[in-house]
Amino acid sequence: MAEWIGRDKRARRCYGFDEIALVPGMLTINPNDVDTSFEFDGKKFQVPILASAMDGVVDVKFAVEMSRLGGIAVLNLDGIQTRYDDPEEVIISITKAPQDKVTELLQKVYSKPVKEKLIARRIQQIKSKKAVAVASCIPHNAERFSKIAQEAGLDIFVVQSTVTSTKHISRQYKSLDLYKFCKSLKIPVIVGNCVTYDMTLELMHTGAKAILIGIGPGAACTTRGVLGIGVPQVTATIDAASARDFYFKRTHKYIPIITDGGMRTAGDICKAFACGADAVMVGSAFARAKEAPGRGYHWGMATSHINLPRGTRIYVGTTGTLEEILFGPAKVDDGSQNLIGALATSMGSLGVKNIKEMHDVEIIISPSIQTEGKIFQVIQRVGMGK
C-alpha cells in the first residue's frame, strides 16, 4: 500500500472526505423507511451525531435540548462551565475579543481552577430536566472528576485528549490506567482520540464502550499545523472500523467507533458512516444553533493551552435552531441543516436500511466530486462553492 517518498522511506497514501464519493447500488429506499439510529451500550439514540465537548457548543441548556431531540451532547468538565459560576458573562467576553487578543484572553480565562461543586451542579441541572448527561475531561483529571460526576448522576463519561494511548510515560504525574479506570466506573466510558488500527484495537481492550477517531481535523483545531500530526478522516475511520470488526470476531463484543471532527456538511457525515463510523461527533454544525452558548463562535479545546495553543476561535454564525439543524426544514443551501434528513435521503438513495448496512456502500476515489460542474457555484460563492 505504501510507496517510496525518498531513500529508505515509504509512506501510505491516505484520504479525506473531499477525495471520495459514495456510489448508489441496485436498490433505492424511501428515506422514511430507513433507520438512522445509533446503538450504544444497549441503548438506542435516534440521532447518531454527538455534539462535541466544546465550550462554544455545549452548555446545560444545549445538552438538555439535544437530549430531547434524541441525541447526545458532551459537556466539557475542563471548561468554562465548571470554572465560573456565571459562564455566560465569560463567553460573551470571548466572543467580543479582537482576533489578535483572543488566544491571550482564553489562556487567562482557562487559568482559573475548576470548581468541583460546579461539576456536580452542572450535571444535576441536566438531570433535573430528565435529560441524558454526558461529560468529558482530559486523562489527568479523569479519576477525580469521574467520581464527582458519577455521584451527581452522570450517564456516560468521556476521557478525551489530542492523542490517547494505553501506555503514557510521565515523570511529572501519575498516568491514568485506562484498563482499571474503565472497569472501576459503574457507567459506560468513551475513550479518544486515536487514528490507527493498532491503537483502536488496544483501546477496545481497556473496556471502553466506544472509541473516538480523529486527530486535528476540527475546524477550530490547529494541531496538524502546530504539531504536524494527523491522519485524514476517511483513512482513519476505515482503519478503526477494521479494528472494530476484528475485535468483534475475536470477542463477540461490538465496540462502536465515533468519527470526531472534519465534517463540514451532511455529505461528509454520510461519507463517515460509509467509511465505517457507527456515530459521528461534530462541533461547527452545532455551533450555528441558536441554543449554542458561543453565539456563532467556537474554539478548539486546546486553544487555551498556556504554553502551546493548538486551536483558534472561529466564527460560523447562527443559522437556525438545533431542531432545524438536525431535522429541518433547511433554510440554507450548503448542507449544514437537516442533517438527519440528509442522512436518511442518502441512505435511501444508496439502498441501505440502517447505519451498519451503510458500512458496505461502495466508495470511489474522486477528487473532482467537489468541483465537477460547479463553476458557477464557486464563482458566486453559493451552495458547494461557499
Question: Can you say what the CATH homologous superfamily is?
Answer: Aldolase class I
The average pLDDT is 93
Label the CATH architecture.
Alpha-Beta Barrel
Biggest sheet details:
8 strands, parallel, barrel
Q: How many H/I helices? A: 15
Radius of gyration: 20 Å
CATH topology: TIM Barrel
Q: Indicate the low-confidence ranges by residue numbers.
A: none
Please provide a written account of the structure:
It is a single chain. It is built from 15 helices and 16 strands. The chain has helices spanning 60-68, 87-96, 102-109, 116-127, 139-151, 178-184, 197-204, 223-227, 233-251, 266-274, 284-287, 322-327, 339-350, 355-358, 375-380; strands at 2-6, 9-12, 20-23, 38-40, 43-45, 49-51, 72-76, 134-137, 156-160, 189-194, 210-213, 257-260, 279-282, 297-299, 313-315, 362-365. The protein has an 8-stranded parallel barrel with strand order 6-7-8-9-10-11-12-13, surrounded by 5 helices. It has a two-stranded antiparallel sheet with strand order 1-2. Strands 3-16 form a two-stranded antiparallel sheet. α7 crosses α9 (233-251) and α10 (266-274) packs across α13. The protein is globular. The model has no long low-confidence stretch (mean pLDDT 93).
